[in-house]
Amino acid sequence: VQLVESGGGLVQPGGSLRLSCAVSGFTVDASFMRWFRQAPGKDLEWVSSIAVGGNTAYTDSVKGRFTISRDTAKNTLDLQMNNLKTEDTAVYYCASPSQRGQGTQVTVSS
To answer: What was the pLDDT predicted at 1?
Structure first.
């Protein structure tokens, strides 16, 4: 089982990024999947989740800006992030119930 995040980078406030988590060892649509983030000096924070049935949930601070989805053809978990703010700066992790990836850095700065 392996989770590998990609798509992070440096973006200006108001910009967009799309994170992707490549899943191996199981099918992404057969597991409850989540995105977390950890900003410098802060605790790990839950960002979004998608259930096996497709129901999604978001922390209040990203509602209306972030969209979680699954690509079953590629077996990836994705996070589309729009209208990014400086407070979104963090390392973003995807997670299954039993494992977390290594993370990808997102930096929002002018």
So the answer is: 87
